[in-house]
Amino acid sequence: MTEVLEEVRKGREIVSEIEKGPWPNFIREAKKTRYLVDLYGASLYLKRDLFTTGGYVSVPGVPTGILMRVTSRPDIGESANVVRVLIPSGNFMTSDMMDGFCDFADKYGVGMLHALSTGHNIEIPGIPKERVRDFAVEFRDAGFEMGSTGDAFRNVTNCVGAALCEYANLDTMQARDSFYDRFNDYAKYPTFPHKVKLKISGCPLDCARSTQKADLGIVGSWEGAPIVNEQMIKKLGSKKIDDIIQSCPTLAISASEEGIKIKGEDCIQCMGCLRKGEGAISPGKEKRFLIYVGGKLRGKKGPLTGKLLTRVNTMDEAMNLIGKIVEVFSDHAARKERMGDLIFRIGMKGFLDLMGMKAGAMNVKDLRTNIFYAVNEEDRKQIPERIVRGEPQ
Amino acid sequence: MTAIEGPPRPYSNFIPDYLKGSIGKWINHTVVRSGIIEHVDSEGRKVYSVKAGSTPNGRYSTETMRKISELARKYAGGSMRFTQALNMEFITKDLEDAQTLTNELNALGFPVGGWEGHIWNMTSCAGYFHCALAATDAPSILQSLANDLHDYFDKEELPSKLAISVSGCPSSCGGSFLTDISISGIHTEVPVVTDAAKTCDMQGTAFSCPVGAIQLKPLPDGSRTLEIRANLCIGCGLCLSACAGIIFQTPEKTDGHAIAIGGKASASRYGTTLGRIVVPFMPNEPPHYEKTVAVVRKIVETWKADAKKGERISDWIDRIGWEKFFMKTGLPFFQQSMEYLDLRGIMTIREGSGR
Ligand code: SF4
Ligand code: SF4
Ligand code: SF4
Ligand code: SF4
């Protein structure tokens, strides 16, 4: 018997400690598979990551979806590939589909599934390089598809929306489906300067985090007052009605004969009253779709939150705008520059200019405090004129 | 190959049949018990969501996955989903199925919970488990936190929603900075350029550096190599993913993790907030990371005792201010929590950090 390396032996001790405890445990899971637990244990003992960068795998006809995982200690664990699988909208999977993924993980991988990755893909780890090609052929024959790697549209994610949530202003799952009907080429072939993530939320509560982790976000909203169901609101009683009135940050809600009255022009769609309304208050009829740009965590300028670009009235307009934005991004971003970094570099005003759009109050968190600014002759003339005319934008 | 284009769709093929008639008609939801939610549509139809916690980094054996898939077949219309927060969600057509399913999930070791004033989710990135860039092992840290705090997922109440995430490095794949409590691995040394860097895309590598610390240096033989200006480097590690020839030399001594609090997502007027760093460095101490767990526990308990109902951690801090936060938690304030921005608004190194 060969002697067990010190770092492997010590690593196993650490791993058997991590295996304990009440919460669902990834080590207990990993030990039921052929995953490289010894390599992982050794990295914990050595306090250094034993996977290393580099390595590239190319499978003809599979432009995206396969990643390489290279180990710096092949004596403890071998390098292999990970396949990233695209799953249906809303991360719904049928039992048959899950069993299918398991079959592939058993046959080609190490008997482990990553469900889900933080980008909301299923990943099948541990596929040896020489078997990736066979895997891809068989996988596609079974009706599955891989993707979401490289400088393309990464997996588009969405909140559950109209399928299960009363706050939804749109069928987010349908929206993702039609995104792929239209833009699949941009998702399949890596042609952008850097990756682009799009997330779709059904309402301003933004469960999909389109304003945080996404280069592009679409958020369903409305204009004017939320809809009040008079019968239901009265049943809530005066204490709860009072609560609802108090919950409105803009004082848009007042008590009335019918229960409550909401002043539409004062509503900022904060969702406060809907959350307190126990079903009696629902989103308004006049739908709006908020387009956010430039959120991301990684990249040159550190984490940035998405900024509101504009509001449009239909999902069609929203999709057209997405197409336009990625064109501008492709034309103007430097190589490996994320959308947020581009906007950081040229400013929101610069980005709006490239889009052929005018900045409005919705585009700013706050106004400029630095008074020094090149107000030119044209401005000196038109600013007072517009004030006199009472021209809003 | 029979090429299919993009993900499987339309989605209606993959959801339980009894959901189809209610899409777009939901009017309300109520919490039956922690982790079971009743949804009602305008015609009085009801379904029940059952939400279960998942493993820290979402890794499952196929053995377990097949059991989960079987539960979905038996109780949830042959389908299940993962939520935004990466919990498992099953949708049943009656409460009895929801309750039986809950028992079966519990028997498999999966707690059912995570709604309203509870921990919603705890997620980590791959860390040492599968990624080349980790400065800390995210899944084992999260496992330690989850083992310590799990009662808040399905039993004990909190003032409001709480989400926790751990990422192995500042790339934050695990979602650090987005959650109420987030831990993120950090490197604190300057990487070195090895001979292997000669085969890298040098321009691309230089460009990958956010602070312009990487220069191309001509060598006497006419070839070129890369040079890192130590006084500029912030140790972000981005150059490592651009060039395999750049490495950190002694991560076992210098790698660690930072703790940030107060992140949350919202497109409403209050907007999205990112986590703010309260503890700039903790050492990597597997298997149980006792010190890190103690800090997180302290923050959670103080927030629980002091916050008004409905206040997320960021709302609570907005109300009481940072001075009171440090006073109430007893955590020391660190000089390194101050921001160091240069004129372009880019994070720079702290003066006197010895670089
Ligand atoms: S973002 Fe809004 S519509 Fe979507 S799941 Fe969350 S609350 Fe529901
Ligand atoms: S959504 Fe918000 S702003 Fe609009 S009426 Fe309700 S509480 Fe007021
Ligand atoms: S956060 Fe860092 S360590 Fe974690 S998966 Fe992303 S790149 Fe890897
Ligand atoms: S670690 Fe970051 S800051 Fe330092 S040289 Fe590499 S890319 Fe530049």
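qc> Residues B 191, 208-209, 211, 213-214, 228, 233-239 surround iron/sulfur cluster (ligand 4) (CB under 6 Å).
qc> done
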